[in-house]
Structures are given as C-alpha cells and as structure tokens.
C-alpha cells in the first residue's frame, strides 16, 4: 500500500482534530480511502466518503490483540 500523511509534524501530539492518512493501492494511483486519527480513536473513510466506521483506541487495541 502507498500511505501518505497529509500533515507532517515532528514530535507532535495528536489533538482533537487529529490527522488524516491518504491510502492508495501500491500503484500509487488508485485511492482506497482515508484513515482519520484523533486522540479519541480512528475512523476509516472508504473511497471518497467523508465518514465511516469508527473505533476508540481501546477497541482498536483489543481488535489488534485478538
């Protein structure tokens, strides 16, 4: 996968607004969606959607550890 960071900062704490990762297929041309990351959790926005499924950090951690 090709993943791009929209806003790049150094030693930056994620705030309420968070940041967004643009996710593309390995060809770098086909956009799959966005992963929005905030201090409250994560949200996957499929394709060009602006909203999508959400997970709190604890839900995400539990899912990854299962």
Describe the structure.
There is one protein chain. The chain is mainly beta and 66 residues long. The chain has one domain (2-65). It has one helix spanning 57-65; strands at 2-5, 19-24, 31-38, 41-46, 54-56. The chain has a five-stranded antiparallel beta sheet with strand order 1-2-3-4-5. It is globular and about 35 Å long. The two termini are 23 Å apart.
Count of alpha and pi helical runs? 1
Tally of extended strands? 5
Q: Order of helices and strands, N to C?
A: EEEEEH
Termini separation: 23 Å
Anisotropy-based shape: globular
Largest sheet: 5 strands, antiparallel
What portion of residues is helical? 10-25%
Multimeric state of these chains?
single chain
Strand order of the largest sheet: 1-2-3-4-5
Based on secondary structure, the structural category is: mainly beta
Radius of gyration in whole Å, from Cα? 13 Å
Mean pLDDT: 85
SSE topology sketch:
Layout: E1 2-5, E2 19-24, E3 31-38, E4 41-46, E5 54-56, H1 57-65
Antiparallel strand pairs: 1-2, 2-3, 3-4, 4-5
Gist of the model:
The chain is 14% helix and 41% strand.
Q: Which key features would you list for this structure?
A:
five-stranded antiparallel sheet; 66 residues; single chain; 41% strand; 1 helix; mainly beta; globular
